[in-house]
Structure prediction request, 343 residues.
Amino acid sequence: MLVLGIESSCDETGIALYDSEAGLLSHALHSQVAMHAEYGGVVPELASRDHIRRVVPLLREAMARGQRTFDDIDAVAYTRGPGLAGALLVGCAFAEALAVALDKPTIPVHHLEGHLLSPLLSSDPPSFPFVGLLVSGGHTQLMRVTAVGEYELLGETLDDAAGEAFDKSAKMLGLPYPGGALLSKLAEQGDPAKYTLPRPMLHSGDLSFSFSGLKTAVLTLVREQGETLSDEFRADAARAFQEAIVEVLVKKSLKAMKQTGLKQLVVAGGVGANRQLRATLDDEARRKKFRVYYPELEFCTDNGAMIALAGCLRLLSGAPSKPAGSFAIQPRWPLMDISSHGA
Prediction:
């Protein structure tokens, strides 16, 4: 079974081909980071227009790399939500139109399901069930993943997502957009003992998160320095921030593992690429005898490969596809709705 996947939920346009037997055949991706950097953040209207410009060239690129023809495609998967409404509409409309032209069914995919399943693209994938830690710019959640389409929310952030806190703290430290990855790199040069920032909800007794207070603590630290921030201060503050957020993510993940009794942890989303987070989790996994799985670095951020994979796995699991031509996006879409109502 060959599935074409289309991702356009925010500021990356991704197209991929996934074969149920041969695995990932190809993927093509365009990031809009350079365009949005001029404005210090994603501009939804510009994102939508850029998706329109990129989707056809990327489709041609993915088809050529995968060495397949349109006649070979069995279904077209696309991101239905959550995400920016205009950006989602581009991918949805293109996918539905292409499927009509090919007389193939479509598979609307939940963006977060794509992230949770993305480690299955690796040569050493996890098996079901597992605990999923989803850490991205828009979401921070702990999930019990029993099977494709079967998800139980264990805990989530009550305010800012981890990736959002990274980006906003980076901006306070004077780092350019997108600052989260730059903050992580800068933190490697910082002194972990210089500053201590709060660990929000670390001892709350549940699996919920909160990062707005940590962000406020960074702002207070910055204001105490006055108008000029030295390179040394930026590095030390970045390290203090990262130490705090990593400790919270790791401790909550360990609690989820103990609570569920599972021995596999999947870490997905953009923050899942953070080297300190990975190193700390790997150390804990060795000590406590469980396995941690990560997507390949190229699949931590938004991409078409995870959408093609999720679409293919949904078909193989018996989830229904739908006739092409009628569509609806869901900019706000709780992942648990898949378990109760289907996609």
